[in-house]
Amino acid sequence: MMRALRNTWPQGAFLLALAAGTAEPGRAQPTQLAAQVRALNQQAQRRADLREFDAAALPLYNRAWRLAQAAHNDTLVGRHAYHAGRSYYNLVRLDSAVFLLRLSWQASWRAQDLAQVISAGNFLMLTYGDQGRPDSVRAMLSRLRALYPRTRPRTEARARLDNVLAGHYQDQGNYARALDYRLAQLAYERQTHDTVGTSVALTNIGELFYLQGQSRQAIRYKLDGLRLAEQTPAMRTTLPQLHAMLGKTYLEAGLPDSARLHYEAGLRQLGSAPDPAASAYLHAELSSVLTRQGKLALARQHSQQAVAAVANSEDLDTKTTVYFYAGEVELKARNYAAARRYLRQSYDLALRVQNKDRYEAITRLLAEAEAGTGHYAEAYRLRSYSAALLDSAHVGEGQRAMAAMEARYQNQDKQRQIQLLKLETQARAAEATRQRRATYWALAGVGGLLLLLGLIGYLLRQRQRTATLLAQQNARLAEANQTKAQLFSIISHDLRAPVSSLFQMLEIMLDAPDLLDEEARNAQVVHLRQTSRDLLATMDELLVWSKNQLDRLDLVGENVALPVLLAELHALYAPLAQQKHLDLQISCPPNLHRRTDPNFLRVILRNLLQNAVKFTPPGGQVRLDAEAGPGAAVTLRVRDTGPGMAASQLEQMLNAPASSSAHGLGLRLTQEFVRRLGGTLRAESVPGAGSVFAVVV
Fold it and tell me: Is residue 10 part of a domain?
């Protein structure tokens, strides 16, 4: 209840305490006018430093900004138009406040006084909010946010902007973000050794902790702010507000004695000529504390003083709170008629305030007062509406109170019947509740069982999938092992045996030709030809088999860094090129990348480089160049200065069928790998001038 009914008086001044401008005047004016401007500026600034933004100070502020305007001093126009705008705001003359605050904003912009621009923008935003202009509020907030990058950290302008944004996020309920801005503001105030600003910043940080329910932290910061304010003469007028805020925090922390001490200290600080709103707030809060402590006589004295303080006030929010606390005191004292009178006034004002939290609390106590004075029909209506506004934590209490009101509302003859029906209803409700709980537990058990069965089924399916996948992988591994065995068999038997036979026969013919007569030599030549033919057939079969295996290879695309790949190839073939006295060069842009299978691409380039090095005579040159092609393609060229070949020979080599024995296995594999990568292989050759093989992938 206390949180719902707390007044905004203690906090309002502190959220705006850094708003007054302090910029220096602009350029000097003619002597007489400049002297008038200085004198009037000093008078107006003294009133502003004392926070006198009221009807008494307003004419002085208006004369000050008009005279500064005549002197073309935008800095002072911005400052005193702002003071006048604040005064109009406090007098609830919002249109005049908007006019002068806009004037302050524009003049301060011209003077490049960002601190004053921010202060004017902040009060413009508040005034727009009171006028019910949310679009203007959002537009001004957007402008103020845009100033943040233009202000340097730990400067006056940044501190004011931190204050504005902290207030905005605090109003939005984003207390964590508001706290960041408040802490930044505190760092600036401490850096400048401004005791007033530091005290205000500490208090505002304490209020943020209070709003987050962290009473211990809130009390610590607010006490630090109060101690600093007590040491600063300029803060004496704010001490009642500081005590009020601390009292509110202690009360929320469950320490009513400490709260009472601070409320009483705040009243002492007000002195003989208190501010009516401040006096009303402190007396009302103190009466609530005393009511809780059972000191009703003293509580009634303070509530009556609060009522007297707001008699001529136009602050509906404060009057609503004061009348509520006065009614609460009378209700505790069982003075139902007086309680009904005060609470009815609070109720009517709450309808105009349109605060549902406050409305519920007032309605609930007013229903009790109406019942106490015998107005049961009205009490029943109010209690019904109060119960509808309560949250789930208060439903049971509200229903019991409503039932009591209903019983008193009915006539004496029907009371017993209502009581019996009520007991029967409660018994049925209890039975229904037990049945619902049993049903809920049964449904929960079935749901849990279904969930467990589903989980077991899912795990079994996963296990089955894993077993199937392992079986498939094992089958592929067995097939790969069989393929490897076949390959080793071909190499060791079908290839090695013929080659060994060829080598032995050639060695005999070269090393011991006399051992063979003409007929034996011819027989050996025939045998050599047959062996070579068999070896070639075996190679063709191996090529066909290799192609079939190649079709079963899966491409694995990666983001290939071509400079790295080409550097590896250069390191691989540099020794062979050096041995043949060849100039091997690599050229590739440093950031060239291509998404492809690096292993396929590496085999392609190795075969082309190997052929180029092999067929280029000593003293020649071999180059491997890479460049970005159209779109995302890449072109790789292998150039050599070898013997070259005729166009017909080149075409026959590139278009030869797989079964042809005219060309080697390497070129056929290269063509097949390029095809698998989705690329193209082109070749150019000039007899005596070398060849160029280009791969586009």
Answer: yes
Beta strands in 588-642 (DSSP E): 593-596, 621-628, 634-640
Rounded Cα distance between 358 and 1, Å, is 8
Whether 200 and 90 share a structural domain? no
Among 251, 286, 301, residue at a domain's last position? 251
| Confidence (pLDDT) at 29 | 42
For the chain, what is the radius of gyration of the CA atoms?
48
Question: Do 93 and 226 sit in the same domain of this protein?
Answer: no
Provide the token pair at 509. Answer: 């013919």
Q: How confident is the model at residue 326 (pLDDT cuts 50, 70, 90)?
A: very high
Give this prediction's pTM. Answer: 0.48
Distant-in-sequence contacts of 490-497, Cβ < 8 A, 24+ apart? 490/538, 490/542, 490/545, 494/538, 494/542, 495/535, 495/538, 495/539, 495/542
* Residue 13 sits in the same domain as residue 141: yes
Q: Is the dihedral of CA 12, 17, 23, 24 positive or negative?
A: positive
User: What's the number of domains the chain is made of?
Assistant: 3
Write the burial class of residue 298 (CB in 10 Å: 0-12 exposed, 13-18 middle, 19+ buried): middle
**Cα–Cα dist 441/457, whole Å:** 24
Provide the domain limits for residue 72.
1-21+30-146
In a domain, 208, yes or no: yes
Give the chain's mean pLDDT. 82
Model confidence over 445-496: pLDDT tens digits? 898 889 999 999 899 999 998 888 888 888 878 876 776 666 666 566 566 6
Residues 216 and 252 sit within 8 Å (Cβ to Cβ):
no
Closest Cα partner for 266 from 291, 284, 292? 284
Residue 594 has pLDDT above 70, yes or no: yes
* Count of CB atoms situated within 10 Å of the CB of 389: 15
Q: Which residue has the tokens 């019983």?
A: 407
DSSP category for residue 584: E
Is the residue at 374 inside a domain? no
What integer pLDDT is reported at residue 86 of this predicted model?
93
The one-letter amino acid code at 209 reads F
Q: With 90 as the cut, is the pLDDT of residue 664 above it?
A: no
Please tell me the predicted confidence (pLDDT) of residue 395: 46
Instruction: List, in sequence order, the alpha helices (H) in 212-335.
Output: 215-230, 239-252, 256-270, 276-292, 296-309, 316-332
Residue 559: phi and psi, rounded to 5, are -85, 100
Instruction: Judge if 627 and 690 occupy the same domain.
Output: yes
DSSP structure class, residue 394: G
Residue 194 phi, psi dihedral angles, 5° rounding: -90, 105
pLDDT 10s digits, 531-542: 777 677 667 666
Q: Do 121 and 218 have their domain in common?
A: no
Q: Which two tokens stand for residue 117?
A: 């621009």
Check pLDDT > 50 for residue 393: no
Shared-domain flag, residues 105 and 181:
no
Q: Same domain for 118 and 15? A: yes
Can you give the pLDDT at residue 59?
Answer: 94
pLDDT per position as a tens digit, 200-218: 999 999 999 999 989 899 9
Report which of 150, 122, 108 is spatially closest to residue 23, judged by C-alpha positions: 108
Taking each helix axis from N to C terminus, what angle separates 175-191 and 156-171, rounded to the nearest 10 degrees?
Answer: 160
The pLDDT assigned to 85 comes to: 95
Q: Is the pLDDT of residue 524 over 50?
A: yes
371 SS3 class = helix
- Alpha-carbon separation of residue 152 from 114, 198, 248, 422 (angstroms): 11, 19, 36, 70
Cβ proximity of 41 and 23 under 8 Å: no
Residue 482 has, within 13 A of its CA and on its CB side, a CA count of 7
In a domain, 631, yes or no: yes
**CA gap 5, 9 in Å, rounded:** 12
Give the integer Cα–Cα distance in Å for 190 and 194. Answer: 6
Report the CATH number at residue 139: 1.25.40.10
